[in-house]
């Protein structure tokens, strides 16, 4: 794998209830919450969940859409998530995620095999939605 200097730092997801979203990502997806207590205390505007040492998902309250004035039309993206975010996991993490989502009765797509991604063909992959409608793909490579 080529070592690139650019890294994916964070993705901002619009959510109705950041605390409920953080709970979903912690319990069903297995990601660690960041700044949750600070958000609950009103000290920071949104919490996040950690994907890995370098990447987080920011759980931005949908009510903040009107504040998105950094570019013309930015507020218009509220409620319009990207097509999907893909999480690449080791095989055991992939299997554990499948189990947690099944336990939480989260609807999932069928398993796919050999879908192309950043590291070539993934052994298995599937899709699921979070409670706010954001679509995620999970995959593992051998």
UniProtKB/TrEMBL annotation:
Keyword entries, A-Z: Dioxygenase, Oxidoreductase
Q: Where is the VOC domain?
A: 7-141
Q: Taxonomically, which superkingdom? A: Bacteria
| Gene3D superfamilies given in the database record | 2,3-Dihydroxybiphenyl 1,2-Dioxygenase, domain 1
Q: Which GO terms describe its molecular function?
A: dioxygenase activity
Q: Which PROSITE patterns match?
A: VOC
Task: Please report a single Pfam family linked to this protein.
Answer: Glyoxalase
PANTHER family in the cross-refs: GLYOXALASE DOMAIN-CONTAINING PROTEIN 5, GLYOXALASE FAMILY PROTEIN
List the protein's name. Answer: Dioxygenase
User: In which organism is this protein found?
Assistant: Streptomyces variegatus
